[in-house]
Design goal:
Chain lengths: 236, 250
Amino acid sequence: MGNFDRKIETFLRVFIDQGGYREVLIGLKNTLSIAIIGLVIGIVIGTAIAAVRVMPKYKILPRILNNICSFYVAMFRGTPMVVQLLVFYYVLLPLMGANLPSVTVAICVFGLNSGAYISEIMRGGIQSVDIGQMEAGRAVGLGFWTTMLKIVIPQAVKNILPTMGNEFITLIKETSVVSFVGAMDLYVAFNNIGSNSYEFMIPYLVMAVIYIVLVFLIAMGVRWMERSLKKSDRSR
Amino acid sequence: MIEAVNLTKQYGALTVLDQISETISEGERIVIIGPSGSGKSTFLRCLNCMEDPTSGSIFFEGVDLTDMKVDINLHRQHMGMVFQQFNLFNNKTVLENITLAPLHVGLKKAKGRAARIQLKREVEARAHELLQRIGLDEWADKYPSTLSGGQKQRVAIVRALAMNPKVILFDEPTSALDPEMVGEVLDLIKQLANEGMTMVIVTHEMGFAREVASRVLFMDGGKIMEQGTPEDIFDNPQCPRLKEFLSKVI
Ligand SMILES: Nc1ncnc2c1ncn2[C@@H]1O[C@H](COP(=O)(O)OP(=O)(O)OP(=O)(O)O)[C@@H](O)[C@H]1O
Ligand SMILES: [Mg+2]
């Protein structure tokens, strides 16, 4: 155990005295902002796509939109996230002559990617809402989009909340791919601490614990939201 | 008020409505009866274009609703609809169920904060009035899942009333109710009838049909086979299909 104590000592020295915690904090901030902002973007894109895909398709415009959305979803679900990130960062942006920070690019790619997945989740959620809810909205003269936003989607969200929680957890875990485009994240931060001290056991252990705690907190948050949303099912 | 012209609806090869032409005038209380699958619901749902007719037209106050250029939402605001399964908005309170559409419509027109606040107050006052009328004002802030079937349907009816519709379409409003709750819903509909509301009702309640109808339509095989006053239809039926139908349901 003396060995283990020494390892902890080494880790603390690099982590605190040599300022390793700063990189960890940056990494944590990046991980969270990529996952959270990515999720928010994903929810907006995903909800819009899902709504387009359940639109009545008598007219030509919904049909065109629907095809575009199908293509988009197939693209982003059909390729690995790393590939999407690399293509955006090293191919598309240079071609457009744009130069964005890698974290910003990662946020965009995560948003676009999760938008594709969330659209499928959301579509299932929308289809699980009784068709009578849409009909009742239309019958009182509300438009398709108004009824969707005010009546159907709120109920759909309640049905898919657990699945969305899983999607968020997936995003948190996948943020480790940003090291491919040179951004700081938890893995890079702890890896640096490890390299500086030639001691990897404790850094990776702490990293694993941080991920576990994050995931645990999210799961708790989702359960809390589910409970508060359930209220409309019972009397108050 | 509503005029169907050569109304036809097909699902694939199945013709559900076959060249129906019919006029419904203001103040009429039309009751539609007929065997299951005869197209009653489809006919009713075509009247406010919840189903798009395959061919033919629906004129509501002279406007062809089947015309794609017509703003259907605008016209639906004047045509209430009450469903067999109530279809109250589950994520809204009883009060919000009633105020949602009037507020949505009004807020588009209201200019300025003061006007919006004023509108909200008026719409909510009217909703409470309607709820008092059906004795459910105490339930205003509850969610629909806490109501009985009969209560839900009465709320659904006043939700339609809140838009001050010119006509209300009822599709089997009591079919999903426990027998002891049928009466309260029928009573409310009868009240509206007495107040002169124009309505079109699909129902299997023959006693109610006889009592409330100013005109009864008998549908079979996607056509209106016979029509007339309740006395004509129930006491002196002509076509054999109607006789057969009545012998089964009465
Ligand atoms: N969306 C649909 N797709 C295919 N067929 C349909 C659809 N809706 C209705 N139909 C068919 O159209 C026919 C008429 O249906 P409709 O609901 O109008 O009958 P109804 O007279 O209201 O019957 P009920 O008394 O059972 O309510 C039925 O044969 C039904 O199966
Ligand atoms: Mg029916």
